[in-house]
Amino acid sequence: MKVIWSLRAKNEFDETCDYWINKNQSKTYSDKLLDETLRKINIILENPKIGAENKKNKLRRVLVLENFSLTYRILKNHIQIASFFDNRRNPNVL
Question: pLDDT 10s per residue in the chain (94 long)?
């Protein structure tokens, strides 16, 4: 099975990393976020149903570094990353 990022999720992830690079004047935290996100994706590939499922929209969610949510859906032959969200943001943005 392969992983495909939606344009929205890719943009959200890139914006989050850019924010932390600018805020910290360092790539260290963004690199840590990338490493942990990739680790979670590998776990999802091994066990796709690990994330809590929202029955309404069939999206599943896993936490990344306690403050970020990665939502995904299981499709026939791939996993689609739907969004990457900072949980400290306004939930209405979702």
Answer: 899 999 999 999 999 999 999 999 999 999 999 999 999 999 999 999 999 999 889 999 999 998 999 999 999 999 999 999 988 876 665 5
Residue 60 lies in a domain: yes
Q: Work out how many domains the chain is built from and give that number.
A: 1
- pTM for the model: 0.87
DSSP string, the chain: -EEEE-HHHHHHHHHHHHHHHHHHTSSHHHHHHHHHHHHHHHHHHH-GGGSEEETTTTEEEEEETTTEEEEEEE-SSEEEEEEEEETTS-GGG-
Q: Identify whether 92 is part of a domain.
A: no
Give the CATH number, domain containing residue 34. Answer: 3.30.2310.20
